[in-house]
Structure formats: C-alpha cells, structure tokens
ABC transporter permease protein YtcP
Amino acid sequence: MHHRNWLDRASDWLNVTLLLLVSAAMIVPFLYIFSVSFSSMEEFLRKDFIFWPDRWVTDAYTYILANDKFVKSILITVLITVLGTLLNLAFTSTMAYGLSKKFYGQRIFLFMVLFTFLFSAGIIPTYLIVKETGLLNSIWSLIIPVLISPWNLIVFSQFFKSIPEELNEAALIDGASEFTVFNKIILPLSKPALATFGLFYAVSHWNSYFTGILYISNPNLWPIQVLLRQIVVVNDTSTLQVEQMVNVQPPPAETIQMAAILLATIPILIVYPFLQKHFAKGVMIGSVKG
C-alpha cells in the first residue's frame, strides 16, 4: 500500500510539472508580447529579450489607436463576428433540428451534408461562386460561404435527438406549432450547445484571415487579421502611418506589431468568461450516454 501511495504521489508531481511546463509555454510568449508592447525605444534597442519593462510607455498603443484604419478594421471584425455568429447559430440550429426528425428523404439531406464534410470544391470554384454572386469586397463574402459547418450541424443534430421526444409531443398536443416548440422549448434547453458552437463560430470568424485576403481587395474593408498580417508578416507598419504624426518619429516596428497583436487578441479573450458556464456543460455535446 505504501509503495502504491508513493507511485500516486510521483504521478501527481509529474502531472503537475507537465501542466506547469505547458502553461509556461503558452504564457511566456504572451508575456513577451505584452512587455515589448509597453517598452520604450531605448529599452527595446538595449535588451535582446524583455521579460518585464523597466519603464512603461504607451507610445505604440497611442500610435495605433490614433490610426483610423486600425480602429475601423477592429469594428469590421466585430461586426463580422457578431453578425456571422448569430447567423451561423440560427441556420445551424434550425437545420440540425430538422435533420433530427424523421421525414421522407431525410437520408438524402444527411448524405448531402456528409458529402460536403468529406469533399470540398476547392479554393478556385469557391472564389468563382463568390465572384459571380457579387459578394467580392463585401463582409458577406466572409459570412455566407461559411454559414453552416457540416461538423457542427451533425453534432448539433445529435444533441437535439437526445432531448426527450415527449416534450415535443406534449407541446404539439396542446396546440403549439413546430416553430413554437423549437423557439420556446428546444432552444432554452440548448443553451450549452448554443454557447459551445457560438464560441467556436466566433473564434473562427475573429481569427479568419485567408478568406479576407482572398475576397477583400479593398484595404478599407480589411478585417483585423488581414491588417495584422500586413503589419506582422509583411512587416509593413507604414500601413498605420497616421497623417497627423507624419513628422513624429514612430515607435519601433516591433513594439507596434506586439501592440497590434495584443489589441486584436484581447476582445475574443474577454468573451470566453461569459460563456464558460455553458461551455463547460456543452463540451460533451453529442456524446453517447451510458
């Protein structure tokens, strides 16, 4: 028994050590980004690695937030994320509810969903469809093509199947319509699923940049991730040149990049605590009950 307890304690210490290492691997880069963004030009040029700034300055943030293009890009991304997530949940939940019911031709519709999940048309055909429908250089090009995720649809459908059918039947007997049943009974019981898939959709919209590069050629309509790519990957901080600061020496490009990354990351991080309660319940959505 003593030998077994020693093994248990050793296993606990090993798990704690591994978790601390994984946590450090995620926290240290974020802390570096945070510290560099608040560092002065002198300190940045003097030190190879800044773990904590000696003197806190907000020059990079002042420079970025004074730029209308960055602020507009953030607002465009917020609009795409909020509007896109609401439409994603509306279309995914209604179609999933329909597929959770038995009706003539159900397997055909299910096959169509599975086919799109397994086989994709590719970038060029999708681009041509977006172009021919007149969605280029529009925020709708970042929302409509990804309106329903086949995987989320299938899992959502399984979740609806787990809700007792007696609730539906009792409401229908009392004279409620299918829409009333769905709106007044099913959706309130689906808060964990809505929170979970809502978070998935929101993060996907917020972090999406490839479709923005593909469909948005107008810089004034760039979402924040496309602008970040221009600043960080292409290293073009002149994108953020502020007219009233033309004669003022800008902060180092690296501090501008780090500040831009932080400003683009914080909003989506703030959303998670509000959904955590429902998200914790929703992680097992679609699982088989024993």
